[in-house]
């Protein structure tokens, strides 16, 4: 007894597997396409400028943040040195808080201007430029360190803290260093951007212009158009043609043109010239040629 036919099961679609278009392959293909597009963009000077601005902005934000923390610490040290034993009721106690921000502000203003001129390849070559920066650093450091070493001068060794003295000496140096580095970063950032644009301009100027396409040569006349050939001045056609074999007007015109060409070329008109323009029997071609070449009393030879 034969078994009943089972219903046909749909075969799995293996087209994607056969082609190898797996999910991983498609993902890698997308990455390759993206990298191919990015390859041209990476060399774009505008993109380089944007990336440099973004990277420099992140760096400067971090430096300014830590510079602010350092200034808070040094400001407290300077205020403590200047205020001494005064209280909050006295103006000197409040005024002492403004000294360190003033020193730091002067230093930052000088260094920012230095960054601008450095980006154009100019250095502030003046003796007081360096002296003023050194005076600001030395003043901040002295006002932070002197209160820490005063116990040593008065013989109170137990009140001296070596760690606190070291921190009060190092942090002003770090603050000064950060203030020096910030304008240098700004200057180098500007130089990189200008160098990228200059390289792009040089490449554009050095690239030769595209050669102009040579003028197209004149095209020969298309034979299919049926352009009439230039004919030389035709010789006078003898009246024998009117007495020769009667031909249809188109054929008679073609024979007359063939005879004129033969005459202009200075050769004998033969049956071959007739066969070249019309299709007739050889005897008739000979008779037509004879009517042109051997006329007698105005009548063609029969």
Automatic annotation (TrEMBL):
Compositionally biased tracts (Acidic residues): 1-15
Residue intervals passing through the bilayer: 61-82, 102-122, 134-153, 165-185
Annotated organism of origin: Saccharopolyspora halophila
Span list, region Disordered: 1-23, 204-229
Pro residues compositional bias, start-end: 208-223
The organism's taxonomic lineage, starting at the top: Bacteria, Bacillati, Actinomycetota, Actinomycetes, Pseudonocardiales
Keyword tags: Membrane, Transmembrane, Transmembrane helix
The keyword Membrane is annotated on this UniProt entry: yes
Protein's name according to its UniProt entry: DUF2637 domain-containing protein
């Amino acid at each position: 007894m034969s078994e009943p036919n089972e219903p046909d099961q749909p075969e799995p679609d293996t087209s994607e597997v056969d082609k190898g278009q797996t999910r991983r392959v498609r993902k890698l293909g997308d990455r390759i396409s993206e990298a191919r597009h990015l390859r041209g963009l990476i060399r774009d000077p505008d993109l380089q400028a944007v990336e440099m601005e973004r990277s420099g902005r992140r760096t400067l934000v971090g430096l300014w943040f830590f510079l602010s923390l350092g200034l808070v610490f040094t400001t407290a040290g300077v205020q403590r040195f200047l205020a001494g034993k005064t209280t909050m009721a006295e103006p000197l106690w409040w005024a002492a808080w403004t000294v360190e921000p003033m020193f730091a502000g002067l230093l930052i203003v000088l260094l920012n201007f230095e960054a601008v001129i450095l980006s154009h390849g100019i250095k502030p070559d003046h003796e007081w430029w360096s002296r003023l920066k050194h005076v600001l650093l030395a003043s901040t450091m002295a006002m932070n360190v002197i209160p820490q070493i005063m116990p040593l001068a008065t013989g109170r060794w137990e009140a001296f803290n070596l760690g606190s003295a070291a921190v009060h000496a190092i942090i002003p140096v770090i603050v000064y260093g950060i203030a020096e580095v910030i304008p240098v970063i700004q200057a180098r950032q500007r130089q990189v951007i200008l160098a990228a644009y200059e390289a792009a301009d040089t490449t554009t100027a050095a690239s030769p212009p595209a050669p102009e396409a040579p003028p197209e040569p004149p095209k020969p006349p298309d034979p299919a158009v049926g352009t009439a050939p230039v004919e030389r001045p035709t010789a006078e056609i003898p009246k024998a043609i009117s007495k020769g074999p009667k031909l249809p007007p188109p054929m008679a015109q073609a024979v007359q043109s063939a005879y004129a060409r033969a005459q202009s070329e200075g050769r004998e008109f033969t049956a071959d010239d007739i066969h070249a323009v019309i299709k007739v029997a050889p005897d008739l071609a000979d008779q037509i040629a004879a009517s042109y070449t051997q006329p007698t009393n105005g009548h063609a030879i029969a």
